[in-house]
Amino acid sequence: MNKLLLQVVAGVLSLGFVALAEAQDHRPDPRSRAYQLVPKRRDEPLRYLNISDYEVREIQLVAEKYLPKVLLNISPVVTGCPCEEGPQCTDQVYIVAETAQGAKGLQLSRVRNAWVVGSVQQWYLRYDELRSSKDDMEYWAFQRAESDLFREFPVCVGQLVPAENKTAATPKVESRK
For residue 65, how many other CB atoms are within 10 A of its CB? Predict the structure, then answer.
């Protein structure tokens, strides 16, 4: 009787572990997703109209808050954003500026027709700050802080459909006469 009970319990536990493993396979690991989305220059797909003078000035104003030195380069504007940036994100650029430590990059996202530091880049700024303080922290405190930060990595909510790129005039809605 005890052997049968042990076999039943072992079977139920093994089924539970299999179900848990399958459930985790459908959910992306935050660490691997974060490493896939490291902010960097992208060269495709390019936006039909690259960048306007107004957008360059807007990008410079945003960049001054994060990189208060000489702006060296603005990449071509690419359409589309990772779903972690949210459904309102339409385009992205990568800028490089010269700092005292050397060249530093920053990825900007176009959200609701404004250039902003997107949620993934904001997370990476916090991650870089944590890594820079690693030497001042105890090993386990750093590991705990890093794990907590990876749990806060932006995630997609369901299947987000990226917002359309509205570079042309919006079509008028037909009205019944």
Answer: 9
Higher model confidence: residue 157 or residue 16? 157
What contacts 73, CB < 8 A, 6 or more positions away? 95, 96
Residue 80: Cβ within 10 Å count:
17
Distance CA 34, CA 131 (A): 15
The crossing angle, in degrees rounded to 10, of helices 119-132 and 139-151 is: 180
> Could you tell me if 126 and 111 are in contact, meaning their C-beta atoms sit under 8 angstroms apart?
no
pLDDT tens by residue, 42-63: 999 999 999 999 999 999 999 9
Indicate the average pLDDT of the chain: 81
Adjacent-strand bridge partners of 41: none
Task: Find residue 91's DSSP bridge partners.
Answer: 79, 110
Locate the domains of the chain by residue range.
Answer: 29-151
Neighbours of 155 (CB within 10 A): 13
Total-model pTM: 0.71
